[in-house]
Design goal:
Blueprint: E1 5-14, E2 17-27, E3 32-36, H1 43-50, E4 58-63, E5 66-68, H2 73-78, E6 81-84, H3 96-100, E7 107-109, E8 115-118, H4 120-134, H5 150-164, E9 168-172, H6 180-195, E10 199-203, H7 207-213, E11 216-221, E12 224-230, H8 236-244
Parallel strand pairs: 3-10, 3-11, 6-9, 9-10
Antiparallel strand pairs: 1-2, 1-4, 4-5, 7-8, 11-12
Bound molecules: adenosine-5'-triphosphate and magnesium ion.
Magnesium ion binds next to helix 1.
């Protein structure tokens, strides 16, 4: 199958630090691929490079087989690539619908066809639809996001990315701060997104979670991809071994 999004030989320096040292990464259509690696391995940097937030110093990015230059996040967004960053970037005082449309608000046609006020009713209708599609249950759709639980907020952040992404959503540690039940709900949302045909890149330090939700795993160590694994034939021990280098005979990518 042709990869949807591919990074090849990506290099990224921050001053003296080499965050990426020739990293490769592959995303196939409609899969959950986990990106794992120790702290500082370069996971967040790789995500930012593939979402147009950071520019690589060297290397190539291909989208649907064609080389692309993602010079700005909006260029990636136009290709259908969205990111859920760990700090979420939601507006706590606004409700779910307003957050979904943050920065992309719908306007009503006013007098003489001029764009007028915000089309709140239409945004609310579409938000309810978007939440329902992902199984996100909010008791009060009009409640400010700041009053929701961490898991609900995370789900709104994911729904927001998914509402605009039609190809890939990067999620940088979306469950790190969540309790067991909330984590389960967010993982369900991730599965639903995949079932809607969108690929998900999940960064996580939680190996049982990775095994439960991901189809494939790519392992980054010291800024390079050191292994790609299929979740059905691997174990937590294998994943940890690949991350630390203890298992360098794991199915290593050429
Ligand atoms: N904006 C930056 N300026 C300077 N150094 C940076 C910057 N971003 C990342 N780095 C460095 O690049 C390396 C890789 O960082 P990165 O955040 O990509 O790792 P990570 O795999 O996401 O780690 P973690 O699991 O802790 O989130 C680290 O040594 C980090 O200090
Ligand atoms: Mg990180």
């Amino acid at each position: 199958m042709q990869p949807l999004l591919e990074g090849r030989g990506l290099v990224k320096h921050f001053g003296q630090v080499q965050a990426l040292r020739g990293a490769d990464f592959t995303v196939f259509p409609a899969e959950v691929v986990a990106l794992i690696g120790d702290n500082g391995a370069g996971k967040s940097t790789l995500t930012k490079v593939l979402a147009g937030t950071e520019q690589p110093d060297e290397g190539e990015i291909r989208f649907e087989g064609r080389p692309v230059t993602l010079e700005r996040p909006t260029v990636a967004q136009d290709l259908g690539i969205e990111t859920v960053y760990q700090d979420l970037a939601l507006a706590p005082d606004l409700d779910g619908a307003a957050n979904l449309f943050l920065g992309r608000e719908l306007l009503r046609r006013g007098l003489a066809g001029r764009l007028g006020a915000l089309d709140k009713a239409e945004m609310r209708r579409r938000a309810i639809e978007a939440f329902a599609r992902l199984g996100v249950e909010l008791q009060d759709i009009d409640a400010p996001i700041g009053t929701l639980s961490g898991g609900q907020r995370q789900s709104v952040a994911i729904a927001r990315a998914v509402a605009w992404a039609d190809k890939v959503v990067f999620m940088d540690e979306p469950t790190a701060a969540l309790g067991v039940l909330q984590r389960g709900r967010v993982l369900d949302v991730i599965r639903r997104v995949r079932d809607n045909g969108i690929a998900i890149v999940l960064i996580s330090h939680n190996m049982p979670e990775v095994l439960s939700v991901a189809d494939r795993v790519e392992v980054l160590r010291l800024g390079r991809r050191v292994a790609t694994l299929t979740t059905t034939d691997t174990t937590v021990e294998n994943l940890v071994g690949a991350m630390t280098g203890a298992l360098d005979n794991a199915e290593t990518t050429p």
